[in-house]
Design a protein that fits this description.
The chain is an alpha/beta fold. Helix content is about 40%, strand content about 15%. The longest helix has 30 residues. The protein is globular.
Length: about 270
């Protein structure tokens, strides 16, 4: 299956210290890529790198704040020196915030502008804009590369309660398509993956009660998902490796691959 062999490639995973990003980092390493795990938490980053190396892969942790251009620039320079020039960028940083979640105690009109801006900065600026501005031009200069942005089902249909997150992820899809058009003539492909519901730190309280049982929101998700379950982080790996491989997806750009158990196909 040489179509999916990433040997010799350098892959950067922004947000590689998280649940989804970490699983993607491990998957890319298993496919043969040298992986740069980027994030703010050195302890979790080191643990992820240890797991990759223990499985026979090659990886390094590089401390970076996705919302700081200066931090990303320093990380890119360190990656190029340690692993080589990246040809794959996975943008997996982001998440929801209780301060911008509509509840009985916090109505939509009570969301503070500063909190709204902070969540858009996390999911759009740090989630796509700044990493693409830092790593994208180097790829276009070399004439090859694949950028994969992590979107959300809420980018396609705005979910209840998570209003700022939904708005930001919709913008991620739009920015992905914009960059796909801009950079295609320069050899860089830009796509996205749309995960369904994958339990992670930022949404666990919305999905599980303190005793571990599913919340009413989780039950509603199951009822709306034809596969009637949550996804596992490893189930995103295949789509990302496909998009990362210049052999498997050489004519694919501006696309969004849904890994959602059929959630966006369900109506009534």
């Amino acid at each position: 299956m040489q179509l999916f062999d990433l040997a010799g490639e350098v892959a950067v995973v922004v947000g590689g210290t998280g649940v989804l990003g970490g699983a993607l980092a491990e998957g890319l390493a298993e496919a043969g890529a040298k992986v740069a795990v980027l994030g703010r938490n050195a302890e979790r980053g080191a643990a992820r790198v240890k797991s990759i190396i223990g499985a026979g892969g090659l990886a390094g942790f590089f401390s970076a704040d996705a919302q700081s251009g200066e931090s990303l620039r320093a990380a890119r320079q360190a990656i190029e020196k340690a692993l080589g020039p990246p040809a794959i960028l996975v943008n997996a940083a982001g998440g929801n915030d209780p301060k911008v979640t509509v509840t009985a105690e916090r109505r939509f009109e009570q969301i503070a502008l500063a909190d709204w801006q902070a969540n858009l900065d996390l999911n759009l600026v740090g989630g796509v804009l700044l990493p693409c501005q830092e790593f994208g031009p180097a790829m276009t200069a070399r004439g090859r590369g694949s950028i994969i942005n992590v979107a959300s089902v809420s980018a396609h249909v705005p979910l209840s309660r998570v209003v700022a997150y939904s708005a930001a992820k919709a913008a991620v899809l739009s920015l992905t398509r914009f960059l796909a058009r801009e950079w295609a003539p320069k050899g860089v492909r830009v796509n996205s993956v749309t995960p369904g519901f994958f339990p992670a730190e930022q949404n666990r309280k919305l999905l599980f009660n303190d005793d571990g049982s599913p919340t009413e929101r989780a039950k509603s998700i199951f009822a709306h998902t034809p596969m009637a379950r949550f996804g596992d982080a490893r189930e995103l790996v295949g789509a990302v490796i496909f998009l990362a491989s210049s052999k498997a997806s050489s004519f694919v750009t501006g696309a969004d691959i849904r890994v959602d158990g059929g959630f966006l196909s369900q109506t009534i």
